[in-house]
Design brief:
Layout (H helix, E strand, L loop, with lengths): L8 H9 L12 E6 L5 E6 L5 E8 L13 H11 L7 H10 L3 E6 L4 E8 L3 H13 L5 H19 L2 H13 L13 H6 L2 H11 L5 E7 L3 H12 L22 E7 L4 E9 L7 H12 L5 H7 L7 E8 L4 E9 L4 H14 L21 H18 L1 H15 L7 H6 L3 H11 L6 E7 L7
Parallel strand pairs: 2-6, 7-11
Antiparallel strand pairs: 1-2, 3-5, 3-6, 4-5, 8-10, 8-11, 9-10
Length: 456
């Protein structure tokens, strides 16, 4: 299952929220980080809230690694790894074993990473580790199996073409990152999927699916020393290849405004506005995250108020921020009546350009105004904190975020994301708005209903 360009920022929060010092083995909430001799990074988080073990394996390969003409190769490979056979079991055997152990089993493709995850009763932890090792490093693929997966993915591509939000978001990315690998569509095209060969996929798999290009996180009901022994037993035999993942240039700011229009068989209009934001780990990341929550999230988003309070130009307005490894993205989504498109876009762009002058907390006011000002800053921070806490409640979400963090940070993910969020000030927000929203460097993609022959 492909994810829209990146997994949500909130998943990274869980990886950085809890303190890094490991408790003695066997105690509640004990953690351990180590790297095997073959380069595989491992993070263990023992917590006894439920009798489950959650394992996420993250591979440093995504749509960014595809070359021209090979679009969708990573997503196609993800499907084959998840549903087809290995050198030791057929795809049917893998599926049967998953069901027999009562496991949840899935995978995700993004711009930067591919993640393969499994959750099951803790008594079957060894099976889960061995299953993940086998599908990650022992894929065996036939032409018949590849053709079957091609048919599935071609249907998914057709579904995207019928979805106004996903289709509009693809248009934004293709234009926002026109000179960067992030322009690559996750699903590829019908033509590129049809053209993919077994040899092509096997070459890609053997290059990127190697231990030094992967990280594994295990979260759940176990003792640290016992789980470390199991992980070492299962994964240490995988040979190191010497592969060094390529580095990419950071995505540049757009430098201009781009408008893209598309007609679809829809009843309402959709506008997707995109701007390049800070990449993961950039010092501006925290302020931009809070800013996007204030403008387009929570219970009282400023963007929604700006577009609905005076002229009621939109039905819904939201905003999100995704921090990819080599460049972030700010996305605004407007749902509106087709006739309101032009004024709504003008109003939205005008508002975004003026955010640099907004007041976000009572501290921005003087005198009696302090007592009546709504604290947008505090509300946004509380919302982000709630999202982080919620993500930690799900062991699989936490395992996924930990595995990604190992590859993003290249170190023990112990430093706190939330601590940095809490330090953000109104001044930081205005500076971030001036840098990323005030320059008018937007891609505006509009998805409108198909006009009839009379142009209506």
């Amino acid at each position: 299952m492909a994810k829209r360009r990146t997994l949500a920022v909130v998943l990274f929060l869980a990886a950085a929220h809890f303190a890094g010092a490991a408790a003695p083995s066997g105690e509640k909430d004990a953690t351990s980080f180590f790297t095997l001799d073959n380069g595989l990074k491992v993070f263990l988080y023992a917590r006894n809230t439920l009798p489950l073990v959650n394992i996420a394996a993250c591979v440093n390969v995504g749509a960014k690694d595809e070359t021209s003409g090979a679009g969708g190769l990573v997503h196609l490979l993800e499907h084959c790894i998840l549903y087809r056979g290995t050198e030791f079991r057929s795809g049917a055997d893998v599926g049967r074993d998953i069901r027999r152990h009562g496991a949840y089993f899935n995978a995700h493709t993004g711009l930067d990473f591919s993640v393969f995850e499994i959750s099951l009763p803790s008594e079957f932890a060894m099976f889960a580790l061995e299953n993940q090792k086998e599908i990650l490093f022992d894929l065996s693929l036939s032409q018949k199996e590849l053709d079957e997966e091609k048919a599935v993915i071609q249907e998914e591509i057709n579904e995207i073409q019928d979805d106004p939000v996903r289709s509009g978001t693809e248009l934004v990315y293709q234009n926002l990152f026109k000179n960067h690998p992030y322009r690559n569509p996750l699903y590829g095209s019908l033509e590129s999927v049809r053209a993919a060969t077994v040899e092509q996929l096997e070459g890609f798999y053997k290059t990127y699916f190697v231990p030094e290009n992967c990280a594994v996180a295990v979260v759940g009901d176990f003792r640290l020393n016992e789980m470390e022994e199991k992980v070492r037993h299962v994964f240490e035999g995988v040979n190191k290849s010497g592969f060094a993942p390529p580095a990419f240039e950071k995505a540049p700011l757009l430098g201009k405004a781009v408008v893209v229009e598309k007609e679809m068989d829809v009843g309402e209009g959709h506008v997707i506005i995109g701007a390049v934001g800070p990449e993961y780990g950039h010092k501006d990341q925290y302020a931009v995250h809070v800013l996007s929550e204030i403008l387009g999230g929570g219970v009282n988003p400023l963007l929604n108020a700006a577009l609905r309070a005076r002229r009621d130009l939109v039905q819904r307005a939201s905003m999100s921020y995704a921090a990819n490894r080599w460049g972030g993205v700010l996305l605004v989504h407007l749902v509106l009546a087709p006739g309101d498109r032009a004024p709504a876009v003008r109003e939205a762009l005008s508002f975004l350009k003026k955010v640099r002058n907004e007041n976000f907390s009572p501290d921005d006011y003087f005198g009696d105004e302090k007592f009546y000002a709504f604290n947008f800053l505090r509300s946004a921070k509380n919302g982000i904190r709630f999202g982080a806490e919620l993500a930690q409640e799900t062991g699989l979400d936490l395992a996924r975020s930990l595995a990604m963090s190992l590859l993003l940070r290249d170190e023990n993910p112990s430093r706190g994301y939330l601590e940095s969020i809490l330090q953000v000030t109104s001044s930081d927000l205005r500076k971030a708005a001036a840098k990323y929203l005030s320059g008018g460097e937007y891609v505006v993609a509009t998805i409108m209903p198909v006009k009839d022959k009379r142009g209506r």
